[in-house]
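During the no-cost extension, the postdoctoral fellow (Dr. R.K.) reprocessed legacy sequence entries with the updated structure-token encoder. One reprocessed record is reproduced below for audit purposes.
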Amino acid sequence: QVQLVESGGGLVQAGGSLRLSCAASGTIFSMPTMGWYRQAPGKQRELVATVTSGGSTNYADSVTGRFTISRDNAKNTVYLQMNSLKPEDTAVYYCKAEGTSRPGLLFNSWGQGTQVTVSS
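Re-encoded structure tokens follow.
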């Protein structure tokens, strides 16, 4: 119904930066919340950051001050600017979006994930 495609992952040295992008496509009437989650090997998937259509943001304590989430509502795209990366940031990063395809028809979609590897 609504598809999410992430891009921008890769390998970077500690202290470096990456910017992830996630573009939503399909039938979208509203998309109140978009966010980023990550999952490291052997660990549970965890929330990294969320942003509402109005611009309100929420961050995990571990990334506050280093990561910035933003979105372009006109393009149905969410971004995650990651600075001062640490090896513990290494994970597969997943984009998530929730909203409605039309009034009353909800969706909750995940992207396929993009690998972020931070070397020490």
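The chain has no helices and eleven strands. The radius of gyration is 14 Å. The remaining legacy entries will be reprocessed before the final report is submitted.
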